[in-house]
Amino acid sequence: MGKALVELFYDVVSPYSWLGFEVLCRYQHIWNIDLRFRPAFLGGIMQATGNKPPAMLPKRAEYMLKDLKRMAKYYQVPVQISENDFQRVLGTSSLGAMRFITAIDMTQPQYLEPLSREFWMRFWSQNEDISQPENILAVAKQAGLSSELAQKLLEMISSPAVKNRLKETTAEAIKYGVKNGWDQFHQFQAPRCEKSWRNI
């Protein structure tokens, strides 16, 4: 039997996406899956589906805080979260970061995994900004990109090609039923195609 194709739609502003990302990277060979990363924009998904961030829903925020701490410990992913982080997330746009990640996916996909991980590390483990150009370049350097390549990618984030790719991937995620940072997997079973969603 051939490998099942598993697509991970993700945004680095989502800590649940990070958990899913690391678990899939860790077990992809054991589970015999063909893993494909699909950078998307969670803000666009929320707007299109009418969903609200946890910071605007106190009960969900309370549960999410406990759940993330428990899952981060279990999966050994260094997510650092407190009540103050919900307001921090509301005040941070990941659009520039996700366009930058989209640009790397389009031009240098070998950097997609380490670059995405470094964005999560900076935002969710080090509690530092990922929205400003200088911070995006700092993440790129940490991921092993040359300063020349990073600058070129930064210039690409305003290009129609990158903007359209991110919009298309986000629209595809919505089509498959993604509504928040939990719903992010799309699985293709070989040899026939079946679609199923899993919540982290």
Q: Which stretches of 5+ consecutive residues score pLDDT under 50?
A: 186-200
Main sheet properties: 3 strands, mixed
Order of helices and strands: EHEHHHHHHHHE
The rough form would be described as globular
Description of the structure:
- With 200 residues, the protein is mainly alpha-helical.
- It is 55% helix and 9% strand.
- It is built from nine helices and three strands; from the N terminus they run E-H-E-H-H-H-H-H-H-H-H-E.
- Strand 1 (4-10), helix 1 and strand 2 form a beta-alpha-beta unit.
- The model is unreliable at 186-200 (pLDDT under 50).
Task: List its traits.
200 residues, mainly alpha, three-stranded mixed beta sheet, 9 helices
Question: What secondary-structure arrangement, pairings included, does this model have?
Answer:
Elements: E1 4-10, H1 15-27, E2 33-39, H2 42-49, H3 58-75, H4 84-90, H5 95-107, H6 112-125, H7 133-142, H8 147-156, H9 160-175, E3 185-188
Parallel strand pairs: 1-2
Antiparallel strand pairs: 1-3
Short structural summary:
By secondary structure, the protein is mainly α. The protein is built from 9 helices and 3 strands.
